[in-house]
Amino acid sequence: MALRLKALENIEYLKALRKVRSFYKWELSKKEGLTRKERDKYLKNLKIIDQRIEGKENPDKKKNKYFDKIGGF
How far apart are CA 58 and CA 73, in angstroms? Predict the structure, then answer.
């Protein structure tokens, strides 16, 4: 039961991240009205959001990087 709840939380979290990502991309596409500082913040946050989405979609990737570094399995 707890695993099912955790899976549902992850799905909702991913949906929220994707909505925020699409909003940021939309804001960046307007090109007018954004200062350079605001644009840099959006780009920085987009990079962070993409990393979190990637981490949630492929949780085993972190483990694989660790094993690749130590030369195991």
Answer: 18
Query: Is 1 a member of any domain?
Result: no
The DSSP output letter for 32 is S
Q: At what angle do helices 2-30 and 36-57 cross, to 10 degrees?
A: 150
Q: What whole-number distance in Å separates Cα of residue 60 and Cα of residue 54?
A: 11
Where the chain has pLDDT below 50, the residues are 73
Which residue matches tokens 């099912």?
Answer: 4
Side-chain half-sphere of 12: how many Cα atoms within 13 Å? 6
Nearest CA-CA partner of 42 in 29, 55, 57: 29
In a domain, 45, yes or no: yes
Give how many domains the chain has, as a whole number. 1
The helix-helix angle for 36-57 and 60-70 (nearest 10°) equals 80
